[in-house]
Amino acid sequence: MSDNSSSFKGYADQVTGAVQSGVASITGSAGDKANAQQSKDKAALEKDLSHSVGKVGPFAVSGSGGVSKDSTDRTEGSYNQTIGSGKEMLGNAIGADGLKKQGIQQNQEGKEQEAKGQLSDLGGGMADRITGTTGSAFAGLTGNRADQQRFAQQHDAGKTAQRSAEADIQRNAQ
Asked: What is the pTM of this model?
């Protein structure tokens, strides 16, 4: 698990920057102002990294190094939307109302199927993050480095699944 893209660390640095800004405004110190701005910039970067996800087909990779595969409902739902839109367009072009209606229905069913997959990945990702965090902490306390690493990977994969689903949900909402 990478500490460089931790959401918690980003929030902690944001608070540190705010405190440093308060001190700088009281003291008027240029050095304190520069340190405060540096902490705020670092917090913004950590937050962006924590929420970044790259996608290649049904696979997602996060800034923390986690990898996840989209639910098949997401992939198949997107496919059904594309095919449904194609049928609708073709039905419009050739005047085939039955094909057009079939395309509209398949497109709608695809949207619902994709949304179901997104919610599944979102919930599963959140659960994996919680299990990974608590498991890693417990394994760290007991000195079990192998389990600590395994739980850290579970956390990172869960975070990637969650962030990927969030990105797709936001994209579809626009």
From this structure: 0.70
